[in-house]
Amino acid sequence: MARPRTPIGTYGDIEFTNLSNGTVRARVRFRDFDGQVRRVESSAATRKLAEHRLKEKLSQRAGSNRGIGELTPDSPFARLVEVWLGDLDLEGKIAPSTRALYERNMHQLVMPAFQHFALREITVSRVDQFIKALATTKSYSTAKQARTVLSLALGLAVRYEAMAKNPVRDTVRLRKPPSQALALTVGQVDAIRGAVRGWRRGPGVPGPPPDGQLERIIEVMLGTSARIGEVLAIRKCDVDVTGSPATVRICGTIVSPKGQTTHRQHHPKTVKSTRTVSVPSFTAEVLRERLVKIAAEDPEHLIFFTRNGTPLTTNNVRRRLRAVLAEAGIEGVTPHSFRRTVATTLDRAGGADLAAEMLGHTSSEITKAHYIEPDEKVNPVTAEILEALAPRMREAD
To answer: Residues 296, 302, 304, 310: is their CA dihedral positive or negative?
Structure first.
């Protein structure tokens, strides 16, 4: 029967020898990371000191032996970041936009705090203080994003055996501050429509008038619940206005990866987000108008596009909307505000499950937590039920 091998990084009994020069030698057989067994020894004036020095040497040896290939405990954090980003590209499991976001958050939020440390110097305490400071000086969202990329990178270091454990996992959990989704009222929606429709139009305004796409994009967002990138990715072949109601297939999004041209990605944010939605008449009217404009184009042609026929970028649409509303004195409205408005309207009429289905969410819990404005009104049927507690007339004595 084969004798079981000693585990990596362990040693057996220590042998002590009194040397002729009056010192004591402590020696042990140690199994290195490469699987080879070697003798390690240390000498000192006393047996206890020799043993102490030997154990220090073994500890250093075990630490230096850890790590696979490119990463060791002494590797600088910056080197880990290089290997981690390369690993993300090698796996290819995340969208290019997510890859770009991870890299940006790592370089802007995390690197300034850890770039001068070796991996062995990154402790739970150091990480915990860093995340708490970000949450205090910046925001919960910023701290959460930094925590995510730092945990992913240090997780790779653990897999390379350059770190014994991921220190991010032992930090205090971030507590999200209380917040609630805010939907637009019908009056606010009409005010936004008016501001966009009248922007840079009229006598005395220099330059050509706007092309009118922004107000039409808003109508499509309100009628489909789609994200801004998904609306800009709608093609001629995705729209069917022959039936009643008209339908739109949400099956892509516009992305602008770093170093690449803006283009249509052939799937939306999630698998569940691919859906065909029926749209109200005001949205159908806008889509018919756009289809007439591109009647001669091929089925893959985008509904909304630049003067050169290229995809509109989400950042440019957001920037234009922000500028228009700022001139009108309207604050706090983003493309996502329309998505929350749709979710809240559908919830009031048909419940959270219907709203989640329309928005392309995997669970109505997501929709309720982030998109539906809480309803403070209690069902008025309670008044009828509580009539049972009304005081009864006393009979006359």
So the answer is: negative
User: For residue 247, what are its two tokens?
Assistant: 């339908």
- Same domain? For 250 and 292 the reply is yes
β-partners of residue 39 are 29
Single out the residue of 219, 191, 222 nearest to residue 304, CA to CA: 219
Residue 51 lies in a domain: yes
Spacing of C-alpha 302 from chain mean position: 27
pTM over 0.70: no
Domain that holds residue 54: 15-65
**Does 389 reside within a domain?**
no
Distance CA 252, CA 233 (A): 6
Residues in the chain, total:
397
How many folded domains does the chain comprise?
Answer: 3
What distance in Å separates the CA atoms of residue 310 and residue 277, rounded to the nearest whole number? 25
50 is written with which tokens? Answer: 């020799």
First-to-last C-alpha distance (Å) of the chain: 105
Nearest CA-CA partner of 79 in 118, 110, 106, 105: 118
Could you tell me if 165 and 272 lie in one domain? Answer: no
Q: Of 245, 83, 45, which is closest to residue 162 (Cα–Cα)?
A: 83
Domain shared by 51 and 139, yes or no: no
Supply 293's token pair. Answer: 């404009």
Compute the distance between CA of residue 223 and CA of residue 241 in angstroms, rounded to an integer.
14
In 15-76, beta strands by DSSP E: 15-18, 24-31, 37-44
Q: What is the pLDDT along the chain (397 residues), one digit of tens a residue?
A: 444 544 545 566 888 999 999 999 999 888 776 667 888 899 999 999 988 888 888 777 665 544 445 789 989 999 999 999 999 988 888 878 788 899 999 999 999 999 999 999 999 999 999 999 999 999 999 999 999 999 999 999 999 989 999 999 999 888 877 666 789 999 999 999 999 999 988 788 887 889 999 999 999 999 999 999 999 999 999 999 999 999 999 999 999 887 889 999 998 887 778 999 999 999 999 999 999 999 999 999 999 999 999 999 999 999 999 999 999 999 889 999 999 999 999 999 999 999 999 999 988 998 988 898 888 888 888 898 888 888 886 555 4
In whole angstroms, how large is the CA radius of gyration of the chain? 32
- In this structure, the number of other CB atoms found within 10 A of the CB of residue 200 comes to 13
Is residue 397 included in any domain, yes or no? no
